[in-house]
Amino acid sequence: MKHSRNLAIAILLVGSIAKAPAIVIRKPYGDTVEVPYISGRVTHVDQNRRSFTVHWQLKGLLKMEHYYPSYEETYRVTEGTVYKNGSWTNIKNGTYVRITGHSDVADTVEFTASTKAQQNAIVRNQQGIAKQNKGDWDGAMADYNEAIRLDPRYYAAYDNRGNVKCQKGDLNGAMADIDQAIRLNPKNALAYNNRGRVKEAKGDLGGAIADFSQAISLNPKYAIAYRNRGNVKRKKGDLNGANADFNQAAKLGSKL
Fold first, then answer.
1. Per-residue pLDDT averaged across 143-159, rounded?
2. Which of 20, 46, 56, 253 has its CA 20 to 30 A from that of 135?
3. Are 130 and 200 in a shared domain?
4. Residue-range definition of the domain harbouring residue 189
């Protein structure tokens, strides 16, 4: 399994928003449109007014099919604003945020990728995934290496690089990378599943079952983890346990 971390530098409409608090953006002719959230890059911070300006740029399809390629809006925070992954002091020029709220007030501010390097790391990770899907292991490895250089805490890139190392037969290197991915994000079910595959390849069947079980604990609908655990149980001679896992995997949509 491969990871892709995407930043939505865009506007998203989800059903009707008339009955829920919505953030406002201003249209070219001065009127406004309400949207559930807006994500983008901070271009200006006013410490005195406790406000900040967000720049967003993309194919923004809004009501009446208007197209907005690039705009900026200014929002203010209050004592009730909730911050995720940071605080007011972390709002600086170049920071990437996702905000929700009402009118021009940010009710929540979530910090996403805060630097250009992190943005570039996301791009290189996605390029690595594309190359990996085509069987270009060396090209994928180079992209994951660069993603990690740009953002040493990018857990998905470690996990993806570990997958490539496993494919290339470097099981110890794969284990080291996926261990690091889990240290950076202990609630990552994909990484536990991937580490289980490496342990299985190394002959550590008990360790593999433990990792697949942890992946299932974190995501009870993880069909592939059930299938993988079933395969290892079958190798260990636990046919009843294997069949139970295979049946659950099938119920969840995994083909054996």
1. 92
2. 253
3. yes
4. 116-218
Please give the model's pTM, rounded to 2 decimal places: 0.60
Name the nearest CA neighbour of 84 among 104, 112, 103, 106.
Answer: 112
Contact 157, 121 (CB under 8 A): yes
Region 100-123: what's the mean pLDDT? 82
Within a domain: residue 225? no
Which tens digits make up the pLDDT trace of 193-229? 999 999 999 999 999 999 999 999 999 999 999 999 9
What gap in Å lies between CA 70 and CA 4, rounded to an integer?
25
Q: Is residue 5 part of a domain?
A: no
**Which range is least confidently modeled, 52-56, 134-138, 225-229?**
52-56
| Amino acid letter for position 17 | I
